[in-house]
Write a structure and sequence with these properties.
Shape: elongated
Helix content: under 10%
Number of helices: 3
Oligomer: single chain
Distance between the termini: 20 Å
Amino acid sequence: MKGFNVKKLAAIATGAALLGSAIAPIVSATSITKDDIYNSNGSPSVNIVIGSEAALSDAIWAGNLAAKIAEKAAQSRSVSVSATGEGGTGGADLDLSDLTIDVTVGGTVTFGAGSKEYKVNLSSSSGAREVQNANDTNAMTDAQLPHLYNASLSQKVDGNTTTPTIQEKIGINVDAKFDTSSDIKDLVGYIEGGDFYYEVILGSAGIDLGATSFTDGSDDNVKIVFFGEEYELSTATLSGSPTMRIVKSSAKATFNEGEIIEGLIGDGAYDDEDVTVKLVQIVQTGAATTAYEATFELYDAEGNLIDTQTVASSGTPNLKEHFQDADGEYALQSNLFVNTIAVGATTGIGYVEVTKGTDTIELRDTKGYPYDPTDTTGIYDYTVSLTVSGNSLDKIKISNSRDKWNNSSSSNGPLYPTKSGQSLTDMEGDTATFGQALEEGSLGKGFAKVEFLGFEGKEEMTTVEFGNEVAGLDTSADGGVSFRGADDAEHKLPFSLELDDTETGGTFLFDSKTIWYDVNYGAGTSAANDLNFSVTTGDYVNGRLWTVTNLAGADGNVQINVEGIGDLNVEVVNLGFDDINMTISDSFSIDGVTYTISDTNILAGTGDVAVSVDGEIIFRKTNSTGTRLFNVGGDEADLSYGKLYFSEDKVFDGNAVTAGGNPVNIGLQGNGDRAFYYAVYPAKALNRLWILLDADRLGAAESNVIQNDKILKFLGTNNPNTSGYTETKGIGEDFYSGGATQRQVLAGNSLWTGHYVPQDTDYNSNAAYSDTTAFFVAEFQLDDVVSNGDLNVYIDTRDAGALGTFTNSNLSGYSTDADFNGTPTWNLQSGSSSSYLQAAYTDAGAKAQVLESDAGVKVSMPENAEKVQILIYGAEVSKEVSGGEVLTLTLGEEGTTDSGTKVTWNDYAGGSCSIAGDADVACSVTAPVGGTYVTPASVRNPIVFLDSEAPQGSNIIVGGHIVNALASSLADRLTAPGQTVAEVDAATGSIYVAGYTASDTADIVNELIQDIDGMDLA
């Protein structure tokens, strides 16, 4: 394998071009490591960016690169295991082959003292804030955050003493939401500029300084508490633009002429280097003995002179604003205030009093914090607000400005949930730290923190899965739906079952129970309408009560009334009207079954009639002698009892209507003997018997609800009705509620059907059933009063998976896999577009997601609305997790929690143990230090972008400056065919892989792919 050599780009001035050619050596070359591409969790930390003007090959190689990065994404985790073994006479080796581990995911998080926890309802509406206390009234004090100061503090001004109460406060606004924007698509918390502040209130009426200009004197002792530490007020100006300087008395130091001030940090060309300042001499500048100048010299760590400056005693100068390097840039980063320049009255030796570093703090109203004299007009990370009234200093406030947590490119990014599995895009949650952008050591940095945990997770979740990977279905099933009933019993219902039309009996698995069935085609299996049976008035036929009236005379007319249908009649063609008096050979259809009268007076005057159909089916529990499951109204002696009559190649569907309290369609009984209703299609021409989920409100046997009073409806199937295959979306509720009088309704270009219709040539040989441009869409609906809206799910009956991917030119009526019309409104769409949502939350904490590999859609809904947790704290706070969902895994097994978190145990570390004796003795094996297992790391989607999208963060920039706008700095690096660039920008972490031609780019990207393939990321 040819190694991919990564060269760290040297820092260059703004606007300057990269120097040298593609083959020129660059200092500090190093081989690529996984840290350039993956973060500590094993997830990719880079985007891949191709040019909008790039050749197709760039896109192909970018896709290959993305695939390899995703394939290698992995993380290693520690594992501790135990097992038991049985003792023997000599000894026993420990067999770990049946070992299992319990993994706990989620749970309740509790916090110790020193924190304020908010548990509030989520509102994704614009402007709604879950925590809103960035104001003096609601800001947090020591009552919520004990580390905040709140006490009386003695003050002295001109010899007058007061004891105002000094109180610190933290204000914070947090806007939590499910953000549907294409670059977020996740549950997040936002903190905008000005929404995170520290404030100290200096008494109810402030501290009266006696004048608008204050300088600390012998009769003054003004104490200021600032970020929990006590300072002395050195100077203050309250008029115009207020300013103040506070110092620690212990920070003041005296230096004589010739002495050196140490512990200082340089700036400019000496940024972050140790520097020293020497007091060279003091000169009297006037007649007054208080008029002096002092000369200071600045030296680097090797003792080289950097600059010399002379300052006067007036104005308390800060040498930070005076020393410069050879380029005219400020050379001292540390504050070094000259408080006093004088000559000792008895010694005659010149001396200065100075305060240095963070022990002296200068605050200026509307300016940045910490104050930087070199930047007085810019946009600040934090700004100062000084509140004054007359001669009184009332409040000091430090607010975030540029340092914010939102979706803007200049911010830290949103706060993602810190609870495992709650981020839909697998982002790692982090805290918002006050002063996060400030230099380490800056006073106030870390004084308060905000953590967005996500949903509390205390509610029981009702999970419903639709699709082709529902476990526990019969092998003849084509997908299905799983959920828990009102009694918490688990149900797994097939969308459809494709069975043999056996006349000798067969079985199938339904909702964990065995169902036996037998098909009978009549006297001759090749003949139609040859199965005869008699009906006496009061009998039930296919779930409907018949009332038969025989008229006088042998083989005379008969009248039949069917419950839910009414009086049956036949058309008298030559007379132009319908007649309820029927005789032999008259036919009529009910629920898709055609009946033919074979005898009207079996027994004259007794209300009997003989009819014929194509065939019958018997369904029983468990086996051929089990309880019958259909048409069990009336008397067991009736010929029709327990039988389902059908017409060949026609669907029997009673449209979920019940008559006399008995179901019209067959109610298959599964777990807990709960019945779920199905239409039946004997496709004799194809030797198939199809069982088809009927449009219904699932849970009819339990007050029409499922677990936690959620409502699950199957609305029916949208079938193409024209050769153009244009769908008319929106089946409505007539089928499931029994409001439709027919099992099919023509709707524009669609034929809406009240049962599941598989797009399968075993079901129907018509062209639409094999045409890939035709779509059969099964519509489901979940009503959740907790989320205040309904969720619609669309299943493609071709494969029983999700409807997408989108965009799809053949889908004109549908553009989503699922949609929610509550708050916030959203659509789920599978596909490659970066704007598509493939998982979403409601404000109540319900979660919906399009499953991978076109498996379908999964929805989890809380019993009651979940609250979101937001934590504010200022000191180390203990955190404990209890509860959670436990997964028991064997080696190599993958488990998925109800919330969708996947866990795989790939390996164990351990050995064997031997046990002497005959007793059963427990022995344990624990993975040694370093024992790990590897689990795939999360890979966000999308990972490939166009240069026009300019994604934030580190990027792998594919292609040169001609085709990729982000590679403009490579213009004079790529000037001829054969030249390539493969480098990491040390400042941004971005990787350039580019060539002069498309072929050159392909070659260098391929080298990178090979290098990644050889990495050990475990």
